[in-house]
């Protein structure tokens, strides 16, 4: 019987994952796997405690949490040079990476479809020495996820991000940034900019054209020239109008990106504090093995 490491964040999102432990273990055991639970504590010894016994007897690591939790575990795996497939249970607030993989929000359905799913390789972004599975960002919304109390995020979900960011808009100072890349360049003002490996941030689909396995990252700059137009642009994304990019947005694809800011700005990777400027971002094609769940059976 192959083993599965189950790393869960007990404080993530609205789902009380501890209430589901027995169900998850039961589903996996019935599927022919021996599941080894581990409660994430985000301590200095976590890497050793979580990964020291990982060997060829392990089939995959199951991660329960949001994008920040997945980011954390993936970075631990990469530091150990472990190529263990990752499966995700979406128990965070936004769960953008899980959505990109097509994981159902229902925990029981997610487990069953993961067990019937396939292992495939997807890209990773790397910002200086830190990996990200979904998105690097800077500007408006960037530190909202870091500042928003857990209880508020768990109560209001993704709305806590939207309204937190919009509340900052009247007093927000636009950045002046420089982007040099093999796919395009930009220098000028920015209200917020993203470098996407995935497609969504706070479940808003900014990166319409992004593919998680194309060997490219999607760069999106929202200039924010006029506040009213900027609000319209943000709600354009919330409504998920996927026809094209509205005016005031720069978009291009790239493999290698160098970012400069003329002021000290806060950066974010997958909802966690990111590196300081200047930032070199690279796409590492096929750097992560994931389990994409079985598609919903046709009736």
Structure write-up:
This protein has 299 residues and is of the alpha+beta class. The chain contains nine helices and 18 strands. The chain has a six-stranded antiparallel beta sheet with strand order 6-5-18-15-8-9. Helix 3 (67-79) links the parallel strand 3 (58-65) and strand 4 (86-90). Helix 1 (21-30) runs parallel beside helix 5 (107-115). The longest helix is centred in the first third of the chain and has 13 residues, at 67-79. The two termini are 32 Å apart. 44% of the residues are buried. Residues 151-160 have low confidence and may be disordered. Pfam families: DAGK_cat, YegS_C. Residues 1-131 form the DAGKc domain. It comes from Alistipes ihumii AP11. Keywords: ATP-binding, Kinase, Lipid biosynthesis, Lipid metabolism, Magnesium, Metal-binding, Nucleotide-binding, Phospholipid biosynthesis, Phospholipid metabolism, Transferase.
